[in-house]
Amino acid sequence: MLMDRYTLLQKIGIYAAILLFLIFMLLPFFEMFMTSLRPMSHLFRSPYQFWSDSFSFDAYSKMWVTVPLLGRYIFNSVFIAGAVTVLTMIVVVPAAYAYARLDFPFKAASLGVFLGVNMFTGAVLLIPLYRVMNTLGLLNTYWSMIIPGVAFLIPTGIWLLRSYLEKIPKELEEAAFVDGASRMYTLRRVVLPLAVPGLIVVGVSVFIAAYAQQFLFAITFNQERSYQPLPAGLFEFIGYQTTTWNEMMAAALVGVLPVMVIFLFLQKYLVAGLTAGAVKE
Amino acid sequence: MTDVVGSKSPVIAKAGRRGLSEGWFAWALIAPAMLFIGVIVAWPLAETIRLSFTDANMGGENFVGLANYEKLLHSSKFYEIIGRTFFWMFLSVGLKLILGLIGATLLNAAVPGRALFRVLIMPPWVIPIAIGCIGWLWLYNGHFGIVAGMMQRMGIIDGPFEILAYKNSAFYAAIVTDVWVGTPMVSLFFLAAMQGVSRDLYEAAWVDGAGRWYRFRRITIPQIMPVIVSMALLSAIWTFNSFEIIWILTQGGPRGGTTTMIVDTYKTAIGNYKFGEGAARAVVIVVLLAVFSLIYLQILNRVNRKYGVK
Fold first, then answer.
1. CA distance A230 to A213
2. Scanning every residue of chain B, which has its alpha carbon at the shortest distance from the alpha carbon of A175?
3. Of A101, A153, A176, B217, which cross-links A181 as Cys (Cβ 3.0–4.6 Å)?
4. Cβ partners under 8 Å of residue A180, min gap 6
5. Is the dihedral of CA B183, B185, B186, B189 positive or negative?
6. Is the pLDDT of residue B7 over 80?
7. Which residue range is the domain that position B276 belongs to?
8. What are the extents of the domains in chain A?
9. What is the fold of A67-279?
10. Mean predicted lDDT score pLDDT of chain B
11. In this structure, is residue B26 part of a structural domain?
């Protein structure tokens, strides 16, 4: 399009601005990475010096020794996020279908209740939540981090998946009904296979959010070190004498790899799907 | 085909006669989700309200009526915290919206490489907030961190400066981190909204000789206004309740300089085991957010009417 043509000067301006924007977004990661490469003696130099003449990947092997449970923490993070995702999807799929297709009493009101949950974060409700966990005997177990995680992700999950399901043509379901299929059968065999791209989008965003939200529940409901997820476990690098920042940054970067890999593989669906759900109308 | 277009299809309704009625079936589908919300959100919320009328602590609890609220009402420190929380919210959300709008506009420009740029802005949102904050904690280190180092090099400060040790600098440092975390999501939603704007509008304006800035101001902004306004509300609620960033960077310090309401609630309830007083603070948060949202939705309706969205 002629309309979209930029002059050379405009192009330079756009790229320069994009570069500035990306620097703000990515500089912390870059500096975290550079920190992980510097030896300890070069970390504690004042004033700050960027360059070090002995960059090395030592921290990436030493970190497993400094914090012996590190591998376990990373596994816990992935495990908790995975469990939260599976449970959330099991609960969200039928509910989203109901809101997308069916007509029932209190439909708008109950949807309002779900969306109202967005007003609260776990932090507001921690005191009674602690007691609920205690009563259910779930303190210091994986469940104490999984169950609240699921609850706070349900509303967004329903919201995103509902708008996706609404776009699937109704005629296919009707054809199944005409052939005598039950509601449950239709949902399982007709709607779900068609909804796979939407399920991926919602699943990935739930996983990312579940990976992200573990810190608060972990530090409040779980004292058991071997169940701790990475965001809480990272603080073990902070020692009484010194903090091995290079190893801590190395561990942080390795620890976000699982979620980054998933994001990179599925980002195409994610970016398109998230926004399609949000901007409808 | 006209009967298929309606919101409720007669065929689907008829299918229900073979089993559960539509209403029961729908509620059966929703029940598991509702159960979760009931146990983890609704019941604790009711319990928070009840606890706010007690002096609950580790030892036990007695009904104390409105004592907790009266104490808050007469605490000038609490008003200071409310003020700080709203300042935190408005400043941070404002910056996120402005940066998000700039970011979305840049990523919407028809230049080669934009697909890559769209992916590259997302990492702050993808990684756990707590882990990003640990990174920032090191960047903000007064002696050895890059931020103080750069400021020293540029002559803004003339020696080591512990950014997180002074009230003002700690507050603005936390704002920067919060904006860093929140901007990718805002940009992404604005970008999607911009791509939903009909090209015909731009072409018609272009044919009439309208420049880029004019088209941005008179077409893009009004067209995506509904998304801007709803994103602003969501972002405001999240920012108001933002806990991890402040907790990891400063734990609400120095001397309360970064204590927002949510941090204050956590410190009172979990840090000092004053469950009753903490609960009263939590209730105030919920009430303030509800009032804020209601006022905001009123404005939203007016804006939508003005821009002709249903």
1. 11
2. B11
3. A176
4. B18
5. positive
6. no
7. 66-306
8. 67-279
9. MetI-like fold (1.10.3720)
10. 84
11. no
Q: Do B119 and A17 touch (CB under 8 A)?
A: no
- The answer to whether B44 faces chain A, any CB pair under 8 Å, is yes
Classify burial at A5, counting beta carbons within 10 Å of its beta carbon; exposed 0-12, middle 13-18, buried 19 or more: exposed
Decide if B54 is inside a domain: no
* Total of domains in chain B: 1
A59: Cα separation from own chain's centroid: 26
B130 touches chain A (CB under 8 A): yes
Residue B155: CATH number of its domain: 1.10.3720.10
Return the DSSP state at B59.
S
Q: Is the CB of residue B134 less than 8 Å from the CB of residue B248?
A: yes
ipTM of the complex: 0.85
What's the rounded Cα separation, in Å, for the pair B170 and B182?
A: 18
Which of A124, A223, A260 is the best residue to mutate to test the B interface, defined by the most B CB atoms within 10 Å of its own CB? A124
Closest residue to B138, CB basis, from A35, A105, A148: A35
Distance CA B39, CA B47 (A): 11
Between the CA atoms of A266, A267, A269 and A273, what dihedral angle is there, to the nearest 10 degrees? 130
Percent of chain A past pLDDT 70, that is, above it, reads 94
Handedness of CA A258, B243, A120, B53 (dihedral sign): positive
User: For the ranges A173-182, A192-201, B122-131, which has the lowest average pLDDT?
Assistant: A173-182
Q: What is the DSSP letter of B259?
A: -
Task: Provide the CA B256 distance to its chain's centre, in angstroms.
Answer: 22
A206: distance to nearest CA of chain B, Å? 11
Burial of B259 (0-12, 13-18, 19+ CB in 10 A): buried
Structure tokens that stand for A114 in this block: 């779900």
Residue B158 pLDDT > 80: no
Place of tokens 């995975």: A82
- The pLDDT tens digits of the residues spanning B15-37 come to 545 556 788 888 989 999 999 89
pLDDT at B308 over 70: no
User: Is it the case that residue B92 has pLDDT exceeding 90?
Assistant: yes
Residues A274, B103: C-beta atoms closer than 8 Å: no
Res A1 pLDDT > 60: no
